[in-house]
Amino acid sequence: MTIGKAIGVAALVAACPLVAFAQTRITPEAFLEAVQGKTVMFHEFPTGMLVGTEEFLSPTLSVWRMEGRGCVYGQITTPDGKLCFLYDDDTDGLPVCWWTFQYEGRLMVRLASLNQSEIQEVRSVTEDGLNCPSTPIS
After folding, report:
1. Of 118, 117, 80, 119, which is closest to residue 103 (Cα–Cα)?
2. What is the DSSP annotation of 108-124?
3. Is residue 11 included in any domain, yes or no?
4. Which CATH number does the domain housing residue 108 bear?
5. Is residue 135 in a domain?
6. 61 located within any domain
7. CA 106, CA 102: separation in Å to the nearest integer?
8. Could you give the angle at the alpha carbon of 11 between the alpha carbons of 9 and 16, nearest 5°?
9. Which tens digits make up the pLDDT trace of 24-78?
């Protein structure tokens, strides 16, 4: 490896919060199996800021709530190995999709977009529901 390539690789590794070889990809189905029937708190990685809370009602339906906002229901799909959510309030009609993985034993998701690298960590999994009104039939 040339010195230029070595410097480039080192810069890439330093710029990435999660080194690729430290991650273990898991299927969206395995992720859903771990959280189905549970309520999950997602935190931004690595800052730890709360992003929101999601209750996984079934493998195809969830309800999402951000602090200070109401409940939004989402249809869950798993195309091409991604975990995708199409929420009731999405104005563009396009789902938000994530790659699911484990990092140091923790469940994580990374936005499945080439131009964004948002990563969220599951910090809490409980049996408590969000008590959202008008839960659709799943």
Report:
1. 119
2. EEEE-BTTB--EEEEEE
3. no
4. 2.40.128
5. no
6. yes
7. 5
8. 95
9. 999 999 999 999 999 999 999 999 999 999 999 999 999 998 777 789 999 999 9
